[in-house]
Amino acid sequence: MKKAVEPALQPDSVEFKAVDREQWLFMYGQMCKIRAFEENANELYLSAKMPGLTHLYIGEEAIAVGVCEALRQDDYITSTHRGHGHCLAKGASVNLMFAELLGKEAGYCRGKGGSMHIADQDTGNLGANAIVGGSAGIATGAALSIKMQGADRVAVCFFGEGALGQGLLYEVMNMAQLWQLPIIYVCENNLYNEYTHYTEAMAGSLTGRAKAFGIHAEEIDGQDVRIVYQTMQRLVERARRGDGPAFLLCHTYRYHGHHVGDINREYYRSKEEEAHWRTDRDPLKLLSEWLIAEELAEAAMFEQIKKEAQAEVKAGV
Ligand SMILES: Cc1ncc(C[n+]2csc(CCOP(=O)(O)OP(=O)(O)O)c2C)c(N)n1
After folding, report:
1. Buried-most residue among 5, 149, 198, 299 (CB within 10 A)?
2. How would you classify the pairing of strands 155-160 and 76-78?
3. Distance of CA 82 from the midpoint of ligand 1 (Å)
4. Does residue 132 have its Cβ closer than 6 Å to ligand 1?
5. Taking Cα atoms as reference points, which of 154, 150, 138, 145 lies closest to residue 245?
6. Sign of CA dihedral 277, 279, 284, 287
7. Confidence at residue 15, expressed as pLDDT on a 0 to 100 scale
8. Ligand 1: which atom is nearest the Cα of residue 55?
9. Does the beta carbon of 130 sit less than 6 angstroms from any atom of ligand 1?
10. CA distance 51 to 258
């Protein structure tokens, strides 16, 4: 059994306090909304109400929220098979997402796409993608269109570390660096490609893959929304300035199985490992504990925010 990756970076409280407390509370609410959405999606699957299956994002919420909070509505994202969090963080409607998951005409793709194909052009979401690494070309093409139009938008390409095995990613990273495109490749390393620890499938350094093209690369704790948000702000700023692409490796963990049907996971990871991430590395807990310790919020506020998110999600279902 492989050891969990521990984050290398320590938060700098002084820098984080420069961000408005309301904005941190908003991000907490966004993470609650994603978690509640996923818990309800799981319930719909388990009660056989949802056609097909879905891949839950629970545990990884800080990445979608920290990244999208640093973007404007007219910036682009592309997403993955584990994409509900990205859609919601970019501003998608809970109602239309559930309609899509449940195969209804009212859904984002008229109920024909389901969980892995949600796109929402109004919020700059160019689409989830069931093909691992499949959106790298779409996101890089969007960045090329931004550059050709002389606009100051940016494109973000979300993908799991499993996509680092896809050749397309290297073709487009090469072009992005050559042409100095405004794109940020956000790699969510949740340790497993389906049921295989990533160290059993990947040689060498993960950030080294981007650095080989001369792409600016950083590696952060993806459980801490404060670090994700502030790092992304810097990377977005440099992309808007015309300083070219960046690669952001975020260390994270999915609490649930690869998909909703992956219930017995002990043959590939231990219960102790899962408990460690849930207890010590939970993104909602990390943010609320810090806000309480800094006397920026009280415990009761988080309960209230959680309840409001759960109510919005329940109404959507
Ligand atoms: C091109 C391609 N190969 C294989 C698959 C089957 N598959 C679906 S998800 C997955 C693992 C993805 O791992 P990662 O990219 O790290 O994302 P995670 O599921 O961990 O979020 C695989 C191999 C696929 N969908 N597309």
Report:
1. 198
2. parallel
3. 9
4. yes
5. 154
6. negative
7. 80
8. 19
9. yes
10. 17
CA of 136 to the centre of ligand 1 (A): 14
Helix pair 299-316, 94-101: axis angle to 10 deg:
50
* 3-class DSSP assignment, residue 142: helix
CA 161 to chain centre: 12
What is the reported pLDDT for 11? 56
CB-based contact 210:173 (threshold 8 Å): yes
Is residue 279 within 8 A of residue 273, CB to CB? The reply is: no
- Residues of the chain with pLDDT > 70: what percent? 96
Q: Measuring from atom 22 of ligand 1, which residue has the nearest CA?
A: 194
Ligand 1 atom having least distance to the Cα of 134: 1
The total of other beta-carbon atoms located within 10 Å of residue 13's CB is: 11
Residues in the chain: 317
- What does the DSSP assignment read for 240-282? HHT---EEEEEE---SS-SSTT----TTTS-HHHHHHHHHHS-
Please name the residue that has the structure tokens 């839950």.
56
> Cβ(178)–Cβ(184) under 8 Å?
no
Instruction: Flag whether the pTM goes above 0.70.
Output: yes
Tell me which DSSP letter residue 204 carries: S
60 in ligand 1 pocket by Cβ < 6 Å? no
